[in-house]
C-alpha cells in the first residue's frame, strides 16, 4: 500500500514518462494558444472567422479550464487596445507604460483593465452571454484552473502539478508579455501603421501566428495574419483545415493590392484601394521615395547613410517623428528644414496622409485632392516622387 501511494504521488494514475508528460504539455499549450488566437482574437474580437457552434463552445470551455479568462472581458480589452492604441488609455502600450511594465507585469495590467467595467460593456458587445456564461464561466472563472489542477494531479501525480504550473504561465508570458510588449517594441514592420506594432518573427508555431503583430494592426479584421511569402501563420493553417471540415467559415481577409499599368489619372478604383491599403501606401513612400533620396543625399555628402541620419530618425520621417523622443524629434525637424528636397518630400507625405486619413465621406472631393496631389508630385522634379505617383495611380484591389 505504501508503494502504491508513492507511485500515485510520483506518477499518478497514468504513470507517464517525462517524454510523455512533455508531449501532454505541448499539446495542451497549443490548444490554449489556438483557443486564444482563433476563438477570442480572430473570431470574437474581430469577427474575421466564424466557427461551428460545437467548436465555439469547445474553445470557450478550454479557455475557462486553462486560463480563467472571460470572453467578454478579453474581447473588450483587446478592442480597446486597437481603439486607443499607443495612448494613455491603451491597456498595454509599451510606449505609454514602458516595455518593462508591459513585459513583466502584463497580467496586472490585464486585471486593471478588467476593473474598468464601463469599458468592458462598451467594447465587449456581441460576446457570449448565454446561460452557461452567466452561471458558470463568468461568475466561477477560477473553477476552471482548479479543476484542471485536480485532473492533472490525479492523472500524472506531482509532475502533473508542474505541467499545470507551466500551463498557467504560458499565456501570461507569451501573450501578455511577449506579444503585447515586444510586439510594440522590437521586430520588423511590413506596414507603416499608425502605431509601433512589429512582427516579432516570420513564424513562431508556439504562439499561433500572433507573432505577426504588425500585419494584424494593419488589417485588424483579417483572419489571416501572414502577408508575405516567407511568413507562416499556423493559426491560419488551422482555420483552413477546419474550413475544409466545414467547422469554420472565413468572413474577412486582408484585400490584396494590384498595380495597374499606364493609368493616367487616379480613379475611383485607385481611391478605394488606397483607403484599404493606406498603410501600404505609407510603406511604399518610405521605401521608394525617402530611401533613394536619402541615399543620394548621403552620396552627395560623401557619407554613409547612418552618418547622414541615424536609422531611428530615418524611420521617423514616415510619421514626422511621432515616436521619437522630443530632442530627437526636434533634431529631425531641424535636419529636414536644412534640405529643401527632403522638406518637399515630408510635405508631400503629410498631404497624402491627410487625404487618406480624412474622416470625410465625400469620395468625389477626396478623389479630386488625390488627383491634384499626383499632378503636383509629378511636377516636383524629384525622380523618386514622380515614380511613386505614377505607381500610386495604378493601385487597385485584386479580384
In brief, what are we looking at here?
Helix content is 63%, strand content 3%. It has helices at 2-11, 18-45, 53-66, 71-83, 94-97, 99-104, 106-114, 117-123, 131-137, 143-156, 158-181, 213-218, 234-244, 268-276, 278-301, 305-308, 311-316, 326-337, 340-357, 363-378, 383-392; strands at residues 49-51, 248-250, 257-259, 395-397.
Can you tag this structure with a few keywords?
399 residues, mainly alpha, two-stranded antiparallel ribbon, 21 helices
Describe the structure.
By secondary structure, the protein is mainly α. The protein has two domains: about 250 residues, no CATH class; about 140 residues, no CATH class. Helices cover about 65% and strands about 5% of the residues. It has 21 helices and four strands. The strands form two sheets. It has a two-stranded antiparallel sheet. Strands 3-4 form a two-stranded antiparallel sheet. Helix 20 runs antiparallel to helix 21. The radius of gyration is 25 Å and the shape is elongated.
List the helices and strands and how they pair.
Blueprint: H1 2-11, H2 18-45, E1 49-51, H3 53-66, H4 71-83, H5 94-97, H6 99-104, H7 106-114, H8 117-123, H9 131-137, H10 143-156, H11 158-181, H12 213-218, H13 234-244, E2 248-250, E3 257-259, H14 268-276, H15 278-301, H16 305-308, H17 311-316, H18 326-337, H19 340-357, H20 363-378, H21 383-392, E4 395-397
Antiparallel strand pairs: 1-2, 3-4
Helix pairs in contact: 1-10, 2-3, 2-4, 2-11, 3-10, 4-8, 10-11, 14-15, 15-19, 15-21, 19-20, 20-21
Amino acid at each position: 500500500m505504501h508503494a502504491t501511494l508513492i507511485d500515485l504521488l510520483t506518477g499518478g494514475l497514468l504513470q507517464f514518462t517525462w517524454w510523455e508528460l512533455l508531449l501532454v504539455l505541448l499539446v495542451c499549450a497549443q490548444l490554449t494558444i489556438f483557443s486564444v488566437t482563433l476563438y477570442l482574437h480572430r473570431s470574437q474580437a474581430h469577427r474575421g472567422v466564424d466557427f461551428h457552434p460545437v467548436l465555439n463552445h469547445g474553445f470557450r470551455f478550454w479557455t475557462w479550464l486553462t486560463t480563467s479568462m472571460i470572453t467578454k472581458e478579453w474581447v473588450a480589452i483587446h478592442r480597446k487596445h486597437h481603439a486607443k492604441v499607443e495612448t494613455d488609455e491603451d491597456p498595454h502600450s509599451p510606449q505609454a507604460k514602458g516595455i518593462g511594465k508591459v513585459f513583466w507585469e502584463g497580467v496586472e495590467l490585464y486585471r486593471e483593465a478588467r476593473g474598468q467595467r464601463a469599458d468592458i460593456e462598451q467594447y465587449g458587445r456581441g460576446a457570449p452571454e448565454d446561460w452557461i456564461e452567466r452561471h458558470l464561466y463568468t461568475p466561477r472563472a477560477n473553477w476552471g484552473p482548479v479543476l484542471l489542477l485536480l485532473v492533472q494531479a490525479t492523472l500524472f501525480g506531482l509532475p502533473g502539478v508542474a505541467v499545470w504550473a507551466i500551463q498557467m504561465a504560458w499565456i501570461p508570458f507569451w501573450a501578455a508579455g511577449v506579444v503585447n510588449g515586444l510586439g510594440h517594441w522590437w521586430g520588423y514592420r511590413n506596414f507603416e501603421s499608425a502605431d509601433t506594432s512589429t512582427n516579432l518573427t516570420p513564424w513562431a508555431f508556439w504562439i499561433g501566428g500572433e507573432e505577426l503583430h504588425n500585419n494584424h494592426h494593419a488589417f485588424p479584421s483579417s483572419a489571416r495574419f501572414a502577408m508575405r511569402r516567407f511568413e507562416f501563420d499556423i493559426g491560419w493553417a488551422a482555420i483552413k483545415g477546419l474550413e475544409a471540415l466545414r467547422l469554420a467559415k472565413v468572413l474577412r481577409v486582408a484585400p490584396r493590392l494590384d498595380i495597374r499599368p499606364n493609368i493616367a489619372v487616379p480613379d475611383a478604383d485607385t481611391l478605394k484601394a488606397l483607403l484599404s491599403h493606406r498603410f501600404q501606401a505609407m510603406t511604399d513612400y518610405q521605401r521608394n521615395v525617402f530611401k533613394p533620396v536619402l541615399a543620394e543625399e548621403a552620396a552627395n555628402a560623401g557619407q554613409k547613410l547612418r552618418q547622414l541620419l541615424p536609422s531611428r530618425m530615418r524611420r521617423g520621417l514616415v510619421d514626422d517623428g511621432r515616436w521619437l523622443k522630443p530632442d530627437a524629434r526636434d533634431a529631425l525637424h531641424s535636419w529636414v528644414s536644412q534640405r529643401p528636397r527632403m522638406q518637399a518630400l515630408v510635405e508631400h507625405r503629410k498631404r497624402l496622409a491627410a487625404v487618406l486619413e480624412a474622416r470625410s465621406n465625400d469620395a468625389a472631393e477626396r478623389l479630386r485632392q488625390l488627383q491634384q496631389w499626383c499632378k503636383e508630385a509629378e511636377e516636383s522634379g524629384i525622380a523618386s516622387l514622380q515614380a511613386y505617383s505614377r505607381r500610386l495611380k495604378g493601385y487597385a484591389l485584386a479580384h
